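Posting for a labmate who doesn't have an account.
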Amino acid sequence: MVRQPVITNEIVKSINAWKREIQLKQIYLPFITVRKVNKVGRRHWIYCVRQNREVHLLSDGEERSYKILLWQPNTISVEEQYVLDIDETLDIAIGLNVIHPRDWKTFVAHPMTLDFLVKVRLPNGGFKLIAYSFKYWNQIFEITPEGEVVEKNSRTWQKFCIEREYWARRGVEYRIITERNTTKQRAWCVNYFELAHDLVASRNELVEFGEAFIESWVSDPRAELQDHLNSVGSNLRLSFQRSQSLFQYCGLHHLLPIVTTRHIRLFRPVELKL
């Protein structure tokens, strides 16, 4: 049986303080913020226009993943840097016979945090939670000389095992994602679509625009996006700006089957999946 780190009163107090602050402010707050992280690397402290709060993301990959998860059709909310109950994660580590995350110098246990806890709407009107851990692909996988993809960095996979068991006890699905799931291209498209997040449009206008755009695209799939927007705008008596905003809004809310595997630009053809 491996020796486990100790839990200090300071750690317990910090977790309890986090819970109290959320209850007091009635809004989600991440346990780890950009200010608290001293590691070298890019951080993102942004204001989320959909959740109306500040969001703290600890890498470019996390920032892209957050945006993509947030704007999925059935997403209700995304909570980042969500702290796990340290008593329970330590109990799980003991059961798995792996060392709980800790400060290797002081041997004091570190609280474990989940990158994203996503609440998803179900067809029956209810909801479910999905837990996501983000890691860059080359941090957890490698390709052998024979071309086989294998796991690497066993310590990281031990932590995944603790997290998976933690969420399994709550009936919550646990997923590991990498930048291959949330690509730069997809994130670029979401950022472009998000420019029209506050657009005010009636259902009839959106349906009319969507039908006209698909008709224009089917007639010439190789035309540049700006040509389709001009054509649709002319037919519906819309300005180019209004036409583009409707396209962005439809893309953001998945009202058009837009392929987002490459950057969307006005001077390039856009691909639809019909």
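Reply:
Got it, the structure tokens are right above this. The longest strand covers residues 75-83.
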